[in-house]
Design brief:
It is built from three helices and 24 strands. It has about 450 residues and is mainly β. The relative contact order is 0.22.
Amino acid sequence: MVNKKNRKWQLLPVFLISIWLTSCQEGELDMDDNFVYTSTYTALIDTVTIQLSTIVDTVKTTSTNNALVGYNQHPVLGGQIAQTYFSLNPPGNFTWDTEKEVFDSLVLVLKPNGYSIGDTAIDAMFKVHELTETIELNDEGYLNNSNSFDFKETAISTESFRPYPQEKEEVTMRLDDSYALSIIDFLNTYKNHTDKNTLFKEEYKGFVINCDTNSTRTALAFEVGDSTTYLRLYSHTVELEKRGKEQTFGLSNTTQFNEIYTHNKDILFNQLEDKKGRLKEQETNGLVLLQSGLGYKFRVDFPSLNNLLELETKGHIVKAELRIHPNMQIMRSDELPSNLYIGDIYRANEIWGYLTDSNNNPLTSSLTIDRMYHEDTYYSFDLTNYINTRMQEAVVDTDQGLFITLPDINMGSSLIWMAANGHSITKNNSKLLLYYYYYDSE
């Protein structure tokens, strides 16, 4: 028999146990009858109750340097539509010889940045519509995915093409000749006017680029910049020989933005429009969603965190790991985002900021992919510091939780997404793992 009084503290081999913690067991820890008795042991607690929900936030889509256009049939959210808006700047040094110069064409040039989602084996059909409403930024100085401006119903350009986004092959769309000639006539008429640029922007407010949703099955992103997205005016003069001429119209980068929306409002996720609302995993068959274009995020709550306060009197949590398991019955491995971010959120989905690591950088996930069975794939967050800090509260505030989101670089200019399993389902569920050192002081 072991003499407890003379026993020395020592670190013994790790034993794994499961402790069932629920919100109704405050202050109680139920342990297995066959628990191995040692002075110090390590336990894995993997049954702490967590609650996952889907929430929605507006997505800033100005200043992303990317224009998103097209249609994608999402396996959960249904049809998603992206269209991009531009203001039009007059050419800086426009010249036109009314006697010798002959108009050829006015062409919109778009350069893909390599991102696409959907079926690129089918021809896409893009359309350009003239705006009838001036693009104006909101009071905060930006526009988001739900903003829109009026435009003429009849398109001034329609172009069918086979998408080759990875090759970054330029997409060119010839604008209606009458629209182009009206611009030339306007610039000639007001070429000596002191306020010609303001008058030009009032007359030509810009355009929106969208797609024919009946034939297009992909969404593409295009670079936004003076050398990548522009209008080019082609003309020639006839003297002794024909001489070609090109002039470029810049597009305003400061007011360019993407409108992203869905037309399947019968789907429960698409009815989530209130930023203060949430769809709990129990309402959506254990499924939660991230989506960069529509602003879906995860919310993670810990309703039974107060139950863990008893642990602080008997030992110490040495590691806390949050595992988020993607639903691999819906997703493919090549669709998984490379990393995720996590931060603090409060009662009415008020986001406080990102969690940080020891170097004060935003805390990111690590991704483990099960390439053999495609089942045990998960994102992992090290929440050791977060959980231990929360455990210092006299009474843990369960209105405070965490949010998980995609990197800012993906927001507003892509349709990157991830579907995950909640905690309430039985297989490959998301969970909080606590590695705990327990000291028997008796």
